[in-house]
Amino acid sequence: MKTHFDLKSSLQENRLFLVRATTLIIFVLILFFALIARLTYLQIETHEKYANLAQNNRVKLSVVSPVRGLIFDTHGRVLAENNPSYSLELVPEQVQDIAKTIKQLSALLPITDEEKRLFEKRRKQNKRFASVPLRNRLSDTEVAIFSANRHLFPGVDIQARPLRHYPFPELTSHVVGYVGAINEKELKTINQVNYRGSRFIGKTGIERTYETELHGYVGYQQTENTAQGRSLKVLSYTPPLSGSNLTLHLDIDLQKIAYDALGDYTGSVVAIDTRTGAVRALVSKPGFNANLFAKGIDQTSYNQLKNSSKRPLFNRSLRGQYPPGSTLKPFIGLAGLDYNAIHPHQKIYCPGFYQLPKQSHKYRDWKKTGHGMTTLHDSIVQSCDVYYYVLAHELEVDRMHHFLHKFGFGQKTGIDILGERPGLLPSREWKKRTRNQVWYPGETLIAGIGQGFNLTTPLQLAHATAILANKGSAHTPSLVANINNKTQPLTKTIPVQLNKPQHWNLIIDAMYDVVNGARGTARKIKEGAPYKIAGKTGTAQVFTIKQDEEYDEDSVVEHLKDHALFIAFAPTKNPQLAVAVIVENGGHGGSVAAPIARAVFDQYMTPAP
Amino acid sequence: MNWLFQKNPQTSHYHQRKGSIFQRLHIDLTLLILLALLSSIGILILMSAGHENMGLLNRQATRLGVAFIAMFIVAQVPPHVLKMFAPWLFFLGSLLLLGVLFMGDMGKGAQRWLDLGFFRFQPSELLKLATPMMVAWYLAERRLPPSHKHIALATVFIAIPTVLIAKQPDLGTSILIASSGLTVLFLAGISWKIIAWVIAAGASLAPVLWSFMKDYQKQRVLTFLSPEEDPLGAGYHIIQSKIAIGSGGVYGKGWMHGSQARLEFLPESSTDFIFAVFSEEFGLVGCIALLSIYLLIFIRSIYMAIQAQDTFSRLLAGSLSLTFFIYLFVNVGMVTGILPVVGVPLPLVSYGGTSMVTLLIGFGILMSIHTHRKLLSS
Fold first, then answer.
1. DSSP element (H, E) containing B30
2. Which of A202, A315, A535, B90 is most buried, judging by how many CB atoms fall within 10 Å of its CB?
3. Out of A21, A127, A128, whose CB is closest to B302?
């Protein structure tokens, strides 16, 4: 559009612009007088108030950190508490020359270069008026020395701060977890106001999962201070809201029995009350001294933990994913019954190996000579592999997947603690999706004996055992029983329903004979038990034996030895506790893992004297 | 408002002196004097607020020098050339904004800077000028008041930089840019009915805007509404700045005697909160004087806008005038606690470079518009 000169409309435009410009001027004058009015109000009306505040801008606001909630076990024993600890702190804003002050301070108290470095780092992260710790964990003598010289150091003071302490640092290092200094990543996600006075945050386990409940809410205190920053009197006080106390289902005695029973092995023990889903023991061995983290761990100790070949920082109970091995057989057997793939009394001949039609590869049984004619019952009691090769071939992978999924395999159990791994329950669809490969029939066979792609966590195994013990119905595993005496609700899992409910008993009877039968793989542990255990042993291969090689237990290096597994529940009738044990490189489930479960049952079933 | 200046003998003489030296240099003396006065006051306050840090003062003085030179240079460019460049500048600025969004340098957690290797550049500064130029360029070619279609397109031009800058996130600048563009629309004469509708729609869209804000921006708004919620954090600024201003009283504590700023109770005392230092030291009397200088600069600028001879110049000049005052209002409003803290500096006084250069280039444009008129003797 080309503009053509149009005098009339140009004049109109001029007039319009003049009106609009005048409006703007009036608008600006209004804003101008609004500002003047505001300034008049501040500088005349409320002048006195602010003059007073400025006079002694000594009215100092400080945060009052909430006390972190305590954590108890099911019998009320303390698992996490707060102990007082003294730290030397510096408010950068109130210190004239920080470098000089630190130098003078180091003449009084030893301050390491590392501490100086940390102080500089924290100082940059904090506001100038925030108190920054220079040294933590002062001894009583050091507190006394500084107090005597306090007047020489304006802006430097000793603060009593509670420090998290774990009475059972190694036993609870994974389940309760630990707190540590808030890092930069966490700083972005937390509520800045609420964490104003906090320097620790839950890093793992219950401490992390229930951080909100444990932390509480910050309070404020207005104090009148001298020019040096010494407080004279408290003007106002908004109390903080203490963190909630948590009571866990965990039984620290049981936890200790399980932990000790693992001996020098690494591994995990999980014990779940079958009636409620309450987790009574959640052990991952080795643990570590959680108090090191709560105090602020030094780099050397941290690297030692991190690089240790036993991986103490790794929570095996939730995150360790192991092939379930033969412990999967009761579930596969149940699938066979439910899908009508086998009859309960049907016998399958086990020559010690199995071959797929038209293939030369021999799928071996652990017993070279074979088990002969084997029923479902025998196959569980003696852990016959060939029986499950045949059954798996009949069922095929997707039906196994579908059935086992109902027992929680291949998915998180939903326990109330973060970091759980889902394990792996293979299917055709899974293999296509993740590897873009077709499923081979041979893979079905080894999946049938809990090897191959199958992976489970110890927690999953215990949970699945609880479902089996209860004949289908169970609760989601839970750790926290109540928060500030408020009972936490239990969640039921979707019940597993069989076409014929009597099939449950067939499997449970077989598991009973694993322990109590004359030929059971875990018969050793029945001696002297006043209650009846039902279980299943398992041995998980860590590496594959070549076709013509033999697995020679003695010649295999320690870290390539088989994992020993055992799942069990007791009493067989009216079950109370389900247990899963995994002993890394332990060898045989029956001889190594089963006795650990027995120790746990003994502690749980025997009433305290 | 013409009477205000026509009665003033000095200004009317000035216009009659056609080829005066300032006219030929394309400088408006009145505006120059006011701007120089303001900058000098700025340096004085900075001396106090910056604790006589000579390095700080030197840097500020250098920037002021650069900014004034930039103003003189821009004043030489005739308005029709500016108009020609308007769409290109806008286009370039918007592209750079996109560049910043995707590969900008993170400074203070916000992506605003574009690193061009030899110097770092904030494209949002370019758009502070390019946006009103673009809208003025677009509307100047149409019959005014603009039709609905033209209003809609102009709104799109305003929305592009506003949204991109709000995403950086820089709420303060984004508000200033939106207001500069909308001022052009207002001056172009959009009907009051539309304005009323927009205000109504804006009020109902506020919750939507809220959901787009970053957490720290929400925090600022919440803190503004109740500073006592977080007295040690975000609320600390406002509480301390009110103490500084209030304690200044009518006459102030005297230059270099403001205890709040000197004792470092007041954060960001040499940048966004410098007005609090001034108020503490010079009191209400000083504040009124300082604000009056700003008001005079605005009035002189809007007068120049009214005097402008073509639509583009007029719209642009009017927008630049108002934006300058909005700058002041937002800053003083936030420092005195009637507006949320959005991070807008006190124009020409706060320590910090880029925005000062932009502001003075804006005044360069105003001078160019005013001094390139074809003076018809009436």
1. helix B29-49
2. A535
3. A21
